Amino acid sequence: xxxxxxxxxxxxxxxxxxxxxxxxxxxxxxxxxxxxxxxxxxxxxxxxxxxxxxxxxxxxxxxxxxxxxxxxxxxxxxxxxxxxxxxxxxxxxxxxxxxxxxxxxxxxxxxxxxxxxxxxxxxxxxxxxxxxxxxxxxxxxxxxxxxxxxxxxxxxxxxxxxxxxxxxxxxxxxxxxxxxxxxxxxxxxxxxxxxxxxxxxxxxxxxxxxxxxxxxxxxxxxxxxxxxxxxxxxxxxxxxxxxxxxxxxxxxxxxxxxxxxxxxxxxxxxxxxxxxxxxxxxxxxxxxxxxxxxxxxxxxxxxxxxxxxxxxxxxxxxxxxxxxxxxxxxxxxxxxxxxxxxxxxxxxxxxxxxxxx
Amino acid sequence: xxxxxxxxxxxxxxxxxxxxxxxxxxxxxxxxxxxxxxxxxxxxxxxxxxxxxxxxxxxxxxxxxxxxxxxxxxxxxxxxxxxxxxxxxxxxxxxxxxxxxxxxxxxxxxxxxxxxxxxxxxxxxxxxxxxxxxxxxxxxxxxxxxxxxxxxxxxxxxxxxxxxxxxxxxxxxxxxxxxxxxxxxxxxxxxxxxxxxxxxxxxxxxxxxxxxxxxxxxxxxxxxxxxxxxxxxxxxxxxxxxxxxxxxxxxxxxxxxxxxxxxxxxxxxxxxxxxxxxxxxxxxxxxxxxxxxxxxxxxxxxxxxxxxxxxxxxxxxxxxxxxxxxxxxxxxxxxxxxxxxxxxxxxxxxxxxxxxxxxxxxxxxxxxxxxxxxxxxxxxxxxxxxxxxxxxxxxxxxxxxxxxxxxxxx
Lengths: 357, 410
Known about the structure:
The structure holds 2 protein chains of 2 kinds. By secondary structure, chain A is of the alpha/beta class. Chain A is built from 12 helices and 14 strands. The two termini of chain A are 24 Å apart. The relative contact order of chain A is 0.14. In chain B, α1 packs antiparallel against α3, α3 (46-60) crosses α4 and α9 (229-239) crosses α10. The radius of gyration of chain B is 21 Å and the shape is globular. In chain B, a hairpin with a 2-residue loop joins β5 and β6 (203-204). Chain B has helices at 14-33, 35-38, 46-60, 62-69, 86-91, 124-137, 163-175, 206-219, 229-239, 267-277, 314-326, and strands at residues 84-85, 104-107, 118-121, 148-154, 197-200, 203-204, 223-228, 250-255, 285-289, 298-300, 332-334, 339-344, 357-364, 373-383, 386-392, 407-408. Chain B has a domain at 125-392: Rossmann fold. Chains A and B meet through α7, α10, β8 and β10 of A and α4, β1, α5 and β16 of B.
């Protein structure tokens, strides 16, 4: 089946996403109601994600490119995860770019987005309670590493599995970047935007920022980021955390308060690590660890298996240095970590490649 | 909340204040043991001591002071004392004194973390005294006179880093204190003698354990084996169904779990197998619970008969109602009077009513120079003075694509 035959359903999906992003449309209004209840995000958090992070703005050319790049399949199956509801659009778009026969099982905790896209696209894909792939089909699975392990055991032989597990974003902020004249607070505000989206519950969300610079720079950046997240709290308040998330948040807050270096930042914390090079990954909920480093490459390599995307601020050489350490990864300017191009799988650790079950 | 950095300072007079608090804690423990003798000299309460230690730590430990700053009403009760998470022991120094005043630094095993936790201790005298008082009324309460004491554990390093190893040494010195020979008269006692520490690079030394059994039999003394649960599993594997040439009376203290180890055994399975191997009733096996971050320990409610001289044992008498209640129920531990355990809500760290499961919070008067209250990730249920230990709380269930809270990576 040619790319042009797969495009109509992709277009229908995109138009549904456009209407969902627009709060004035009936679909947009319904989306806001549904997602406020199911995601735990604040109403402003839902609004922010729909307006800024839903990848509905890709034009016809972008969709055509996507369809041409995708390996074709007789049928595509998609198992969605919760947390980042806008990811349903991208995941289904990838499936439709492979095959017009696309089956989707929504997250049980957050089924709303998939249903809205289904209804809004006039049924461009099929919503199912269970997926039944057969040999030759492609199966896109998003979720925790544990879910993926269990899934591998259950799939029939001959299925092409695209397994996208847990991950996180990392920011790299280099003092040298300030020579360009960009105010430090602007950099902090950009990173705050990446942190606040989905209350950090996504696989692109930055949980650590590696800082290249002297102690004064690191301290100033910590202050600026705390201020930026304070501001963000008033415009896009943090939503509610689950009981498990709250337990981890409490443990982290008390620990880092004792250890030192913690600054209140809205409802979360900015923690400037005082032990050089120590990597302590905070929980979700707008908690970010700032790691001063004089060994960026080593730290990135240590984190490599966990990183999906890197937001950078520094000189021109920085993206190249990052990619030299990590290989294929999304490397974008800080502030754009949650708005990736609709050019294929968001997680380039595996990209388009699949494993044959 | 303020920025951190190295948090060591010693306010003038702090050492003296610490010494006084240590002395009060020891008197408090002594008053429990000899109320008639000591009660007249002290009207100390747990609450007053705990609050004074908390105030001392507020002055001496900036990290603790930051936790106190966040309290809406300050420290006005034991329940209000902010607990220091065990993670803090891995990430920073938890001590009132500067490093040069450390007598010893106990370290966690580090089997489940990338970096082990550290508990600097300025004075071991309180540690030793509290351990001995509790040991006398629990593990050794049915040992009248001398006993042969050996450890199913590796010989401690020098300087010693294992708090468990230290406790074992203290027990050996105090409750045995003689050379491990048939006739110890005139032979020097060496607590670090290899024949007392029966786990080596090749595993459990069954031959040495058998030799210790025979010595105890020859002397007509009981044998007390201080063991980690993991070593007991190794022993059972090495014995492969055989039994040991034990003396008439044999007691086994077992402690610890199997975190990160290749084989796990259920507590009841281990208990019955160990009892068979030592040809002793299960009532002679006693679980101990300790943590590097604590000074004090807990023991299982002793399921055996009343002590030999109950009238002379007021601690035992005071504990008896609790012990009676839980007799025969392994897995229920009790804390000595100088340690309080409560269950707290996972999300808020607020105390839960008795009977509810929560994270274990330990208020340990022995932790004069570190953290009077320690917050663990172990699940507990407190019931009528007994504490049921239910294992480690798992982290948040991994959901969706976000990376679970991982904590320390290197």
